[in-house]
Design a protein that fits this description.
Length: about 300
Amino acid sequence: MLGEFAFTPAFSLPVRLFLEAKHYREPCRLEVVRNAHGVLHDVNENFMDHGGTRPRRRFQYTYALFSANGFTPEAQRYALAHQISLVDLSGESFTWLRNAIKTAAVELYKAQVDHAVERFPVAWMRKRLREALGTCPPGVPLSRDTNAVQFQASASVALTKFVDALEQHASAELLLGFPSAPFILPLVAEDQEGFLSYVEQCPDHAVRLRRFGQAATAEWALFPREDEEAYRLAFKLPEHIEEWISGVAEKERQRTLDIKEQFLSSITIYRMNGSGVRAYQLRYEPRELRQSLGGTQ
């Protein structure tokens, strides 16, 4: 999928984003990230090789990979080297989403086998989902319905259940946080209305950070310093960072503090608000916290 940001960052070209999502049983492997880098390389080469003198628009192309089961260490290192954004959805906060996808996939595959459909009509499925979720692109014609009537009836039931699961969790909005780091953070708001209410009043505010668990199973929580009950965001850090934090037991606390200060001191969230874009700045201020809390983080 290719999309374009609603605004152009300062000192930058307009940004276009390739987005790809994978739901493998195992962590996403190196070849998938290599393919993403190849796409970016081909796009940029196409611009350089284009002849003629007619002015053309230029874009900054980026790539984000979402994975339901994380990424291998090799994939993470390659992505970091080539500035491919990895979004890990393997955390506990996304269990409901992974289960909904798995259930829908099993039921759709069963419908395909039961009704002897040789090739699954992916375009039809996308059309049905976009119609149900109200995400049909304006002015873009969608593919026609499948002519496998019995399959369509069975598959539609599975898709309806999947849409219902998504709508039941509509309040748990997925936000993308952009820290001062070479990765992005998928943030889950337990109470979307509470979060939006707070950040609309305080678009720039200080936060506290808490880490739970160890290594690959670790998750983080973020909430306002002045009002811990106002909202709570959950997120995971890249696995190789968590393994470094937990690598030496006696250094785990200090390494956690180092990550907070170096990579999580400032997190920016961009969100569409009507026809405009709102930016929210979440600041972690360790020195001030140490003074006010006597060293507690």
